[in-house]
Amino acid sequence: MTREALLQFLGTITDPLTGQNLVLANRIQNIQIENRRIGIIFSFPPKLESRIKSELHEAISTGLMESAPGYEVDLHFGNPGAGEKKSSNLPQIRNIIAVASGKGGVGKSTISVNLALGLKNLGLKVGLLDADLYGPSIPIMLGLKGKRPQVRQVYGVSKIVPLEAHGIPVMSIGFVVEPEQAVVLRGPRLAGIMKQFLEDCLWPDLDVLVIDLPPGTGDIQLTLVQTVPVTGAIIVTTPQQVAVADAVKAANMFRMQGIEVPILGVVENMSWFTPAELPDHQYEIFGKGGGRQLAGHFQTQLLGQIPLFMSVRSSGDEGKPAILHHPETQTVFEKLARQAYESLQIRNETMPPTEKVRMNK
Ligand SMILES: Nc1ncnc2c1ncn2[C@@H]1O[C@H](COP(=O)(O)OP(=O)(O)OP(=O)(O)O)[C@@H](O)[C@H]1O
Ligand SMILES: [Mg+2]
User: Fold this and answer.
1) Global pTM?
2) Which end of the chain, N or C, is less packed with Cβ atoms under 10 Å?
3) What is the C-alpha separation between 334 and 336, in angstroms, rounded?
């Protein structure tokens, strides 16, 4: 038995938490092969159920009896203390970007959709998660309204398989919770559903997962940072001064002591309107300067200014993302995606990975 053959074999075994194979899910911490003995140390979160552990044990030892007959097999699951960082719920996702705002209706969902597709156009593997319980914007914007995701059993546990739209996996909490149900959910119950939802989706291997948040700083935001390590946040604002004041509050939540999610930058949306017949004019309908001011306040970058486009509004309503259908918006959103990705790379080179927020209660 060689190391390569062993890894190849482990690549055929399903990871109980992500539905990926064990190698892709980054579960192999150490392997040793000597004197007809195979030793494997896995890296799992400490809470892995013992029933699942024994099923996994069974699957691996039975498989190895065939592919490596005569070898003694020694498996160690979970190694609390060591590799804390590796025991993420979503080890197959390299970066998580949260798109947030203070005020509602400033364009978070629009930016999330077009940013995700823009990042995909750069050649990255991208997924999109809609964490807004109250408005099914993402399903509408991607033409997925009324669709239901499939459920797959992994070691006897039901997991949700994201839908696909325009070549990216998409999951919306609106696919599993009806809007009428959502309005009565409060505080802890909401947090519980959100947490389960984050943990029970079977995401593929991704460079970036873009998460579209509801406005403000509520339970969803807190549950998110407690459940997954958010690599960075992008704050969306309009140029208007009142929007900036609210956006500061939203951004402050990410910077709070103990949360410490870096701000990757600011997107100013609805910056101006240029009518087709007056291409040299910029009508600053919502005022001016908000994005730059907000970026200055947090010593971060203004990643882009997105003008008002009639096509952005209409394409959102029709489920055909603007970046894919309207060349005048394509340039703007692709530039935004490049800036955001650059900022993400700088963040990863200069700062340690984000850790999940630990609760003391
Ligand atoms: N640059 C733009 N040009 C034209 N219309 C836009 C632009 N950005 C957003 N819109 C439109 O504004 C409305 C609100 O946008 P969106 O739903 O993306 O905001 P949001 O911040 O996600 O809202 P919510 O807080 O409700 O989640 C939508 O109808 C969208 O199509
Ligand atoms: Mg929205």
Assistant:
1) 0.89
2) C
3) 5
User: What are the structural domains, with CATH classification, of the chain?
Assistant: 3-86 (3.30.300.130), 88-350 (3.40.50.300)
- For the Cβ of 46 lying below 6 angstroms from any atom of ligand 1, the answer is no
How much distance in Å is there from the Cα of 352 to the middle of ligand 2?
A: 30
| 107 Cα–ligand 1 center, Å | 4
| Whether residue 359 has pLDDT greater than 70 | no
Confidence of residue 361 (pLDDT cuts 50, 70, 90): very low
Q: Is the CB of residue 271 below 6 angstroms from any atom belonging to ligand 1?
A: no
Residue 338 neighbours by CB distance under 10 Å: 16
From the CA of 103, give the closest atom in ligand 1.
25
The finding on whether 313 has its CB within 6 A of some atom of ligand 1 is: yes
Centroid of ligand 2 to alpha carbon of 182 (angstroms)? 15
Shortest-distance Cα residue to atom 6 of ligand 1 = 313
- Mutate which of 103, 109, 234 for ligand 1 pocket (most atoms within 8 A of beta carbon): 109
For 224-264, write each residue's pLDDT tens digit.
998 899 999 999 999 998 889 999 999 999 998 889 999 99
Atom of ligand 1 nearest to the CA of 317: 31
Q: Which ligand 1 atom is at minimum distance from the Cα of 111? A: 18
pLDDT grade for 276, boundaries at 50, 70 and 90: confident
